[in-house]
Structures are given as C-alpha cells and as structure tokens.
Amino acid sequence: MSGAALGLGDWSRSLARRDGVARGDIAGALTAAMVLPAVEGGYGLIAYAPLGADLAQNGFLLGAFTAGVASIASMLAGGRGPLLSGSSAALALLVSSLIGGLILDSRLLGADGRPFLPTILAFVGLGVVLAGLLQVALAAMNLGRLVHFVPFPVHAG
To answer: What residue spans of 16-116 are helical by DSSP H?
Structure first.
C-alpha cells in the first residue's frame, strides 16, 4: 500500500511496524537529502568550469541549492512520487558551453579585461528561462507526442 493511499493517522501508526510505509518514506527522504545535493553540486562544478577554479565553490553551492529549490518547487506544483528534482547532466553541459561562449565575447569583458561575471550569469539565466518557455510552448502545442517517433536507443542514451 502506498503512502499516498494511507491517511495521516495510518501513516504515523506505520512507523511502529518494521515494514511500515512511513519508515520507507523517511528513509527515502533522508537518502535523497544526503545524495542529491552532492550530485547536483557536481553538476554545478561542471557548469561553472569555464569561469575558472576560483569560482568552483560557487558552482558547487549553487548546484546543491538547486536540488533543494527544485524539489520544493516540484512538491508545491503537486508532484507526487519521487520528488528528486534538480538540474541534469545535460543542462550542466549546455550551461557550461553557454558560459564558455559568452566568456569569449569581448563585449562582455570588464574594465580589468576579465569577463564581467554578473552580465554573463544574467545571460545564462535568460538562456535557461527562454529554454523553459520553449518547452512550455512545445507542450502547449502537444508536440510531445512526436517522441514516439524517436528510436528507443536514442532515449536510452
């Protein structure tokens, strides 16, 4: 029986049972709380790599912060089941490539000749938001059904 099918009283009483649903829910939540920030922090390191080693700490912290924010946003949006949310390896690689391209643009250099970080991160944020809006627009046009025409080995990676 799933935790969603149990009432609050039944769920809390299941804590006393060795195979109780509540114990599994709590164990899963604690596991995710320990593992997810480290994974997402690694993605932050990848994304911030083009900015240099001095900003690696910021990349890790922002990646770990993303794990918490995305999980809370997923829960508030009504997500059920596994609420492990955050960035992905693909997003980290795309952001890394975007940052690398922006660093090379001479118009984004500061007075000291180094890339001006606030402007670069603003453009990265804008790029991520625009990509999200594109996904929402594609979903509104029901184009997700086209995934059926993509071969399974492509899905599997």
So the answer is: 21-48, 56-76, 89-103
- Which tens digits make up the pLDDT trace of 87-146? 677 888 888 999 999 999 999 988 888 888 899 999 999 998 999 899 899 989 988 888
Judge residue 11's burial from the number of C-beta atoms within 10 Å of its C-beta, 0-12 exposed, 13-18 middle, 19 or more buried. middle
Q: Please state, in angstroms and rounded to a whole number, the distance separating the CA atoms of residues 6 and 125.
A: 41
Long-range contacts for 129-136 (Cβ within 8 Å, ≥24 apart)?
A: none
pTM above 0.85, yes or no: no
Cα separation, 139 vs 116, in Å, equals 35
Q: Distance (Å, rounded) from C-alpha 102 to C-alpha 108?
A: 7
Q: Report how far residue 94's alpha carbon sits from residue 90's, in angstroms, rounded to the nearest whole number.
A: 6
Q: How far apart are CA 18 and CA 48, in angstroms?
A: 44
Q: How far apart are CA 122 and CA 79, in angstroms?
A: 29
Q: What is the 3-state secondary structure (H, E, C) of 103-132?
A: HCCHHHECCCCCECHHHHHHHHHHHHHHHH
